[in-house]
């Protein structure tokens, strides 16, 4: 009998129980990013949707990619949007089903994809593989459901992504763990994981940064992260005062972003 994968319940029933935490983080990027194109718009340009028919998204969250790219989805495409969290999936369905009437929605763990071999030409895994307990199990599953000439589009962050927020957390003696990406699927090291399952891996970077002028947006962001439960009010107050002081002195609190996409094709 196949062993069932371990499910990270702190992810499914905690951090991503509903879209509120992810929403606070997306809001900071939407309001203060220096690259006006926006992440989802850039991603829509990288993914060859025009030639995609059977498309699977893993960890679709609230469906932000499809909301931003509704006008470039070809009529012939058959979309399957999935997430481990029933709450995230319900939010995606509510947000998208009027515009994507043919789309199928399902609760799916990327480590055990309940679809037939070679049933998709495109798999999208946008900022989610770094949450999966058994990365290689998920990559084997993705390779299995992709057709031989299919493509995986896997977005992730670099190891310096949001590094000033990690420093801010350390300055307030708070848990900075949420800002330390699991290196196994970072932008710097994800290609070596993908190389074990795919013949070709290409990396594309999205150039951006944040110039934040509202301290409360940073407070909301920090409160939305995994580990925020251990934050005490004194730490939040200290953090707010550092950010307010920086904005007063320098005009903005500047934050490094490092994010991008792997496109993986072929079989090993
Ligand atoms: C950072 S959010 C990204 C959501 C969406 N892709 C986006 O970019 O807006 C990560 C998502 O992956 C989901 N997720 C985490 N572990 C998963 C797993 N093992 N299988 C499928 N989805 C998972 C979470 O529930 C969450 O919705």
Automatic annotation (TrEMBL):
Pfam families named among the record's database cross-references: Methyltransf_11 (PF08241)
Gene Ontology MF term list: S-adenosylmethionine-dependent methyltransferase activity
All copies of domain Methyltransferase type, residue ranges: 56-153
PANTHER family, alphabetized: METHYLTRANSFERASE (PTHR42912), METHYLTRANSFERASE DOMAIN-CONTAINING PROTEIN (PTHR42912:SF80)
Protein name as annotated: Transcriptional regulator, MerR family
Organism in which the protein naturally occurs: uncultured Thermomicrobiales bacterium
């Amino acid at each position: 009998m196949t062993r069932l994968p371990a499910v990270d319940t702190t992810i499914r029933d905690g951090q991503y129980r509903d879209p509120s935490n992810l929403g606070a983080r997306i809001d900071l990027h939407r309001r203060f990013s220096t690259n006006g194109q926006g992440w989802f718009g850039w991603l829509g340009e990288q993914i060859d949707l025009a030639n995609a028919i059977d498309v699977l998204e893993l960890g679709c969250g609230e469906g932000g990619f499809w909301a931003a790219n509704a006008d470039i989805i070809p009529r012939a495409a058959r979309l399957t949007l999935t997430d481990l969290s029933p709450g995230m999936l319900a939010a995606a369905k509510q947000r998208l089903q009027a515009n994507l009437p043919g789309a199928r929605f399902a609760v799916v763990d990327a480590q055990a994809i309940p679809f037939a071999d070679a049933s998709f030409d495109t798999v999208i895994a946008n900022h989610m593989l770094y949450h999966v307990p058994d990365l290689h199990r998920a990559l084997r599953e993705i390779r299995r459901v992709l057709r031989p000439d299919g493509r995986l589009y896997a977005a992730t962050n670099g190891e310096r992504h949001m590094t000033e927020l990690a420093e801010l957390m350390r300055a307030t003696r708070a848990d900075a763990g949420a800002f330390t990406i699991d290196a196994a699927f970072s932008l710097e090291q994800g290609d070596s994981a993908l190389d074990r399952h795919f013949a070709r891996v290409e990396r594309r970077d999205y150039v951006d940064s944040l110039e934040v002028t509202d301290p409360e947006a940073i407070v909301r962001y920090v409160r939305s992260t995994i580990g925020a439960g251990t934050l005490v009010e004194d730490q939040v107050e200290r953090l707010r005062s550092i950010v307010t002081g920086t904005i007063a002195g320098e005009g903005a609190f500047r934050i490094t972003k490092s994010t991008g996409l792997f496109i993986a094709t072929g079989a090993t």
